[in-house]
Amino acid sequence: MTEPKSHGRKSIRPTLKPRDLMAEPVHLAGVWTARIITLFPQAFPGVLGESLTGKALKDGLWQLDTIDLRTHGIGRHRNVDDTPAGGGAGMVLRPDVLGAAIDEAQATARGAWPLVYLSPRGARFDQQMARRLARADGITMICGRFEGVDQRVLDHYGVEEVSLGDFVLTGGEIAAQAMIDATVRLLPGVLGNAASTEEESFSDGLLEHPQYTRPAEWQGRTIPDVLMSGHHGEIAKWRRAMSEEITRERRPDLWSARGSRSPGD
Ligand code: SAH
């Protein structure tokens, strides 16, 4: 068996459903927009096309644009990368190619519009950053591949580097989708029940209390009595105490940072 020479193209068979969600060329003014620079536009909306984020996308509560980095590639083969200056393994995305894609992305950016490169060297993404991004008008996200991008692009455009966590992915697309998901669910109207973002983990610097549902007994385990008591004051007190206990035990870093947070952060 011989391996096919080109791996990339033949596997590109986007399913109809996700493409349909993005086929809308019209831009809804004032709608939070994620603009993604990627070599793999067919990876979007991906999981964002499902469930609440997918419904919100269809309903126009947010919008998604992809910019195919390949279309800015050089020459007949639309090259986007080259070998690292100074030697070493892998390939680096070229600044001229990426720069052209960024120019395209930013040409229609309006208002507060962060320009972000997903990168393991970036500031760690967290709920506070999701809240900041949700307050912006949109965002441009650069998904790296291979060894990453030429440093000059980051310097020239003053790109903000953001990391999903202390591990290395093969590309920025999964990180972008995780960050968009966390941000979009904070946009007004996306979660049916707005109160649910106010009580969940990190909303006040605490992890969430345990949750239970029917049946009342399962495998000999029961639901804590207080939750079945109907006494809302006691229930709120219990939930708060559990939140504090879990946070203290599992995340001493969050627990000790609590005093220094400002409300709404
Ligand atoms: N050589 C780079 C890693 C490149 S990984 C380094 O050592 O820092 C290839 C691409 O995956 C990166 O350009 C980036 O866009 C993305 N990526 C990898 N890990 C990531 C993380 N933790 N958070 C966000 N993006 C990440």
From TrEMBL:
Q: Would you tell me the Gene Ontology cellular component terms?
A: cytosol
Q: Which organism is it from?
A: Pseudooceanicola nanhaiensis
Tagged with keyword Zinc: no
Major enzyme class: transferase
**Catalytic reactions on record:** guanosine(37) in tRNA + S-adenosyl-L-methionine = N(1)-methylguanosine(37) in tRNA + S-adenosyl-L-homocysteine + H(+)
A Pfam family found in this protein is tRNA_m1G_MT
Protein EC: 2.1.1.228
What protein name does the entry list? tRNA (guanine-N(1)-)-methyltransferase
